[in-house]
């Protein structure tokens, strides 16, 4: 057995990976990605984001996003669709537009309508709103918050539900994998939507961790349960566990394996933790080195497609050999 088959046998809906269009010409990579015993779920790492999908106002282009969704569907893999509203990877007409409350609400609704309608029936879930919070739990200052205020969040969820009543709707963020101001603020987003009868089905905890600083199993489990206690499902949506200095030592790889095992264990231990997605499975295509210079080796597969000790430990945790 491999990651996905074993994870499903343990009660998860999927074990998955992000991918991106440029990676799909790499045959060694694709052979691993498309194998549903490894991965039962795909997240498009970039090309469903606003700048790709609606590069100019009212003009939609799903060409690149469709490459990934067709790949997943062709292989019988579930899709986490990512994302509808995010401060990053916005086209300049959004970031530099002259907006009023009313005109930006209209543009937001048009965007969500267009994208959700196009992918209707294809996605297991949508990350409706991504990373709306600062690490201290306050609202991130971005064009949506600064123009519309906090109402952009309920508007986004209501609009997504209107155009695909069956897809699960998620709030997705990082640094909410342990208790604290940011996790509490994310729980308050869930509660405030629920209080108004607006559909929210899940919270995505990204899981971009650092080796040796990953929250403990009990910290992660109790945190997941504080979300599921609200009646939403949870998932680890973008897992990678990076070294802050390279190359790793032997004991570093052992610590990384412990950190991965704790994260996977926390999901297994939580009723309503539905799955785990790697933010790509190989260091060859990890986002980390280009964002955090000198850091990396965060993935279960090395850049040469050999597997790390953490891979072996996760397989073993899942009951494989
Ligand atoms: O496609 C262009 C290419 O044509 C160009 O030559 C090259 C030069 O810089 O850029 C390429 O685009 C890059 C794109 O990734 C595809 O590789 C962008 O510059 C780069 O900014 C973009 O980074 C993505 C990042 O989101 C944007 O902030 C990462 O791949 C993607 O993994 C990352 O994913 C995010 C999640 O969506 C949300 N959570 C955090 C996570 C990590 O930052």
From TrEMBL:
GO MF annotations, alphabetized: cellulose binding; endo-1,4-beta-xylanase activity
Which keywords annotate this record? Carbohydrate metabolism, Glycosidase, Hydrolase, Polysaccharide degradation, Secreted, Signal, Xylan degradation
Q: Which reaction does it catalyse?
A: Endohydrolysis of (1->4)-beta-D-xylosidic linkages in xylans
Leading EC class? hydrolase
Which Enzyme Commission number(s) are listed?
3.2.1.8
Give the highest taxon in the source lineage.
Eukaryota
The record places domain GH10 at 6-317
Name its cellular compartments.
Secreted
Key word Lipid biosynthesis present in the record? no
Q: In which pathway does it act?
A: Glycan degradation; xylan degradation
**Major localization listed first in the record, in broad terms:** secreted
Family label: Belongs to the glycosyl hydrolase 10 (cellulase F) family.
What protein name applies here?
Beta-xylanase
Portion of the full-length sequence here? 19 to 339 of 397
